[in-house]
Write a structure and sequence with these properties.
Layout lengths: L1 H18 L2 E11 L9 E6 L2 E7 L5 E7 L9 E5 L6 E4 L4 E4 L5 E6 L2 E3 L5 H18 L5 H16 L2 H4 L8 H7 L2 H18 L3 H13 L3 H18 L2 H18 L5 H16 L6 H10 L3 H33 L5 H11 L5 H24 L3 H16 L3 H8 L2 H20 L1 H13 L3 H18 L2 H18 L6 H13 L8 H12 L6 H24 L3
Parallel strand pairs: 1-8, 1-9
Antiparallel strand pairs: 1-4, 2-3, 2-5, 5-6, 7-8
Helix pairs in contact: 2-3, 2-17, 3-17, 5-17, 6-11, 6-15, 6-16, 6-17, 7-8, 7-9, 8-9, 8-10, 8-12, 9-10, 9-22, 10-12, 10-21, 10-22, 11-20, 11-21, 12-23, 14-15, 17-20, 18-19, 18-20, 19-20, 19-21, 19-23, 20-21, 21-23
């Protein structure tokens, strides 16, 4: 009997306790003063200074906490938002909705959305100094750009996990944030295309294209220069422009020497055309790969919006090259054109026709995937990786040799470290400072924003490598795109045109320029900074001006 009584008492106790159960549910979104979501914000629920629960905001700035509060009143509970480089917010939970469930449980629901203001901490200055230091080391070629980027990323993480552990004002970026910052769509896309191009090199197709260009010109050197410019531009639109110049430049030098002209008169137009052709597509130039991945722009969007204007820019630059090298072209005379053609035909022929067929099949398949990747909602890197896998199977090449010799690991590591450095600047507010400065200058004017972005990008990319500059500008342009009315994707095209075409301004403006100069120097015909500037600067001004007018007219 006693057992029954005790069981009855226990049942009543549990039922009473259950009926009095209460739960607090709090959620919301945390943004900065520019309306961008803040991830990694520590959200703390407290009561009389005692921590009841903790969580962190996700990448879209959202959070959600659910805790039992049977013995507490919701009005006695506070919420706190904390993150280094932001002002801490501590406030009571308000606007509470009450919901009674059929079982007697009470649910208290509150939505707390906050805007956290930036504070300038030592972390801000550390990130800014590292960003400027990395740019300087790369621009003045004090260190190899990959070494400079590794040092920069290493400093940010080292400071964060030494001094930053003891004083959060010195904490720049967490390891998790650093890993998330690396855009593997960019990394894998580059790696896949490097493998495809590496296999194609074995067929001799690029050298054959140079021979065919001369055959089409029929001995007319100016016509040859035009054909080589367009061939280089088209190839660079679908393959990396550095690789294109590595393959075409040596052949061009040899043809120039046969024609008794300075190789520079062919090489400079080619490399300028290479950077222009790379601007036309998503995969043609590293800045475009970065822009496309960040802004979720498709291959077709790049081609449709930039293809026409790049064609016009190429035509305009044919006349620019004629102005600078016209006299040199007139010197190029060959007494027996047929004999030279025969020599070139023997020297620059397809070395592996079967492999070339495989390569063209895979390349067509990959380009088809690029064109349709928006429909399939598939990242471009997937297309490149599938193509790389197919070409490795069909060609039967040694994978170890391919990974060691054809995949430019130093370039891929450079990108990864650069993403970390830029993310450090984002987390500490450096990038938002730049964005605010540009926004203040442009106001709400799309016209001013286009002019600012395209010319600043062109000028900056002429004096520093356009890859780190583009990485820095991505969040800036994203902010301006959100805040300027009717911007659409126009500012992304302005950044692409400025960064890619601006690389033609100086010898160090783009990687393809440096590579071409190195090839020419090894052949005994060095291209000096001054010689390149004399042609590159006017070509860039003409190109960017056409691009700016095109965008302003709504092209």
């Amino acid at each position: 009997m006693k057992r029954v009584v005790w069981m009855f008492v226990f049942f009543v106790f549990v039922l009473t306790a259950y009926s009095q159960a209460a739960t607090l549910r709090v959620g919301g979104v945390i943004k900065n003063e520019h309306g961008s979501a803040i991830d990694g914000v520590e959200v703390v629920i407290l009561s009389n200074g005692k921590v009841l629960a903790k969580t962190e905001t996700t990448r879209n700035g959202s959070y959600f906490i659910e805790i039992p509060i049977k013995q507490l009143k919701p009005t006695d509970i506070d919420i706190e938002f904390k993150k280094s480089t932001y002002e801490t917010i501590h406030e009571p939970i308000r606007n509470i909705l009450v919901s009674k469930l059929p079982n007697g449980e009470t649910i208290y629901i509150s939505s707390v959305n906050e805007t956290m203001g930036r504070v300038t901490t030592p972390a801000f200055w550390i990130a800014l100094i590292v960003l400027v230091m990395t740019f300087a080391l790369i621009s003045f070629e004090i260190l190899h750009r990959t070494v400079a980027a590794i040092i920069g990323a290493g400093i940010l993480l080292f400071v964060s996990y030494t001094i930053g552990i003891f004083n959060e004002n010195y904490f720049v970026i967490s390891f998790d944030e650093a890993v998330r910052a690396i855009d593997f769509n960019v990394i894998l896309l580059l790696m896949g295309m490097m493998i495809i191009v590496g296999v194609m090199k074995k067929t001799g197709v690029f050298q054959w294209l140079a021979y065919k260009s001369y055959a089409m010109s029929k001995g007319n050197v100016f016509k040859l220069s035009i054909i080589l410019m367009f061939v280089t531009a088209i190839v660079s639109a679908f393959l990396d422009n550095v690789t294109t110049m590595l393959l075409i430049a040596p052949v061009s030098i040899e043809i120039a020497l046969m024609l008794n002209i300075n190789p520079m008169s062919l090489l400079i137009p080619e490399v300028i055309a290479s950077n222009m052709g790379g601007t036309a597509t998503l995969i043609g130039d590293p800045p475009n790969i970065m822009i496309g991945s960040f802004a979720h722009l498709t291959f077709n969007q790049f081609l449709i919006n930039l293809g026409d204007v790049i064609f016009l820019i190429l035509i305009a630059n044919v006349f620019v090259m004629k102005f600078f090298f016209g006299k040199e072209y007139k010197k190029g005379k060959v007494e027996n054109v047929d004999k030279l053609l025969e020599k070139l035909r023997e020297e620059y022929k397809i070395t592996d026709a079967k492999l070339l067929k495989y390569c063209l099949f895979v390349l067509t398949f990959v380009i088809g995937l690029f064109v349709t990747h928006g429909f399939f909602h598939m990242e471009p890197s997937i297309a490149a990786l599938v193509g790389a896998g197919l070409i490795l199977i069909l060609s039967g090449v040694d994978i170890t040799e391919m990974m060691e010799k054809e995949v430019e690991w130093t370039t891929l590591v450079f990108f990864m470290m650069l993403f970390i450095i830029v993310e450090g600047s984002v987390q500490t507010g450096v990038i938002m400072m730049i964005a605010s400065w540009v926004k203040d200058l442009a106001g709400n004017s799309l016209t001013l924003a286009i002019i600012l972005i395209i010319w600043v990008s062109a000028f900056a990319s002429a004096i520093i490598d356009n890859i780190p500059f583009t990485a820095t500008m991505l969040p800036v342009v994203a902010y301006l795109t959100r805040t300027i009315p009717d911007a659409g994707n126009t500012l992304w095209w302005a950044l692409s045109l400025g960064a890619c075409l601006g690389g033609n301004g100086t010898l160090i403006g783009a990687s393809a320029n440096v590579v071409t100069a190195g090839i020419s120097e090894r052949a005994g015909y060095p291209i000096t900074f001054k010689e390149f500037l004399k042609v590159g600067a006017p070509a860039t001004i003409v190109s960017v001006a056409i691009g700016m007018v095109w965008l302003l007219l709504g092209g």
